[in-house]
Amino acid sequence: MPGLARYLAVRFLLIFPTVFALVTAVFFLMRLTGDPVTNALGDRLTPAQLQQRLHQAGYDRPLLVQYLDFLKGVATGDLGRTATDNRSVADLLGTYGTATLELAGYALAIALVVGLPLGRLAAYYRDRAPDVVLRLSAILAYATPVFFVGLVLKLVFSVWLGWFPVAGRASTEVQLELAHRSSVTGIYLVDALRSGDGGAVLDVLRHAVLPAVALGLLVAGIFLRLARTNLIGTLSADYVTAARSRGVTEARLRNRHATRPALVPVITVLGLQIAGLLGGAVLTETTFEWKGLGFELAHYLTARDYVAVQALVAVFAVVVAVANFLVDAVAALVDPRVRY
């Protein structure tokens, strides 16, 4: 246990320099484009009004002072207000963060449900036709841009077949119904389940299918190839060969002896894919008009509101760093070798 505690303590402490490096890079890269007030509102204000707004926002101060204030805001959770619509970034997170969390959860579930079983199937049929087809499908799923997949899914299943809605998180009636309830989490599926309204639950799920599939397939291809490669490796390990010589069936070897060690690298890579899900959420939410942080980030990028952009990117950085720590902790619990 001391080895595990020491390992987790080191991994936890690494969160802080990681987040520090990321938010520092974001801050100075944003400042290379000029001050955010001029970028966002420079063509709509007189020179006097522009100088007043710069002074009010503190952008006429030395860059080092602005940087230290930004770090203080990140450390205390005060990420400021947007330059274009003067909204609190904290309000943005509370309003739209749950939508991105919900979409990422759907996509991750699809990636695991699709990628891991198909990876095991590809390993079982190694170098045969099913394996070749699955490997090519995995490459195609990962290489195809998520917005293109989303557009194809909308065209086929929404426009041509009419099976699923074109955009949005839920119909207008369901959104109004959920918003007027006393206990609202912001996660539509949870709120619909708590309401006991089967129609609302079905409506939320129908809206979630296409964006979740578009984003989930991006990660499913990685899990498929990783599970296949690791399972092939463990099936040829010495302890599996010894178990096979003792008469253990192939089904038991795959299900009991080889699967758990093969999943450890998948768990480790899972943390890295959190960043991929958040990055893909920007394009997915924009394609399906899913009102989450990715949708808002794209909006503020278009509006050149770099206060909002650097704040939202800083939040993404913290989420990715914490998620990687949690994944490292799970991997250490599953496989003691990770701790040393």
Describe this structure in words.
The protein has 340 residues and is mainly α. 78% of the residues lie in helices and 0% in strands. It contains 15 helices and no strands. The radius of gyration is 24 Å and the shape is globular. The termini are close together. The model has no long low-confidence stretch (mean pLDDT 82). Keywords: Cell membrane, Membrane, Transmembrane, Transmembrane helix, Transport.
Label this structure with key terms.
340 residues, mainly alpha, 15 helices, ABC transporter permease
What is the arithmetic mean of pLDDT?
A: 82
Give the helix proportion (percent range): over 70%
Q: Which regions contain 5 or more consecutive residues with pLDDT less than 50?
A: none
Total beta-strand segments: 0
Label the overall shape: globular
Secondary-structure class: mainly alpha
Beta-strand level of the residues, as a percent range?
under 5%
Tell me about the largest β-sheet: none
Distance between the termini: 12 Å
Helices and strands, in N-to-C order?
HHHHHHHHHHHHHHH
* Cα-atom radius of gyration: 24 Å
Helix/strand layout:
Layout (H helix, E strand, L loop, with lengths): L1 H12 L1 H17 L4 H6 L5 H11 L5 H14 L12 H36 L4 H15 L2 H15 L11 H8 L8 H8 L2 H38 L2 H8 L4 H39 L4 H10 L3 H29 L6
In short, what is this structure?
The chain is an all-alpha fold and 340 residues long. Helix content is 78%, strand content 0%.
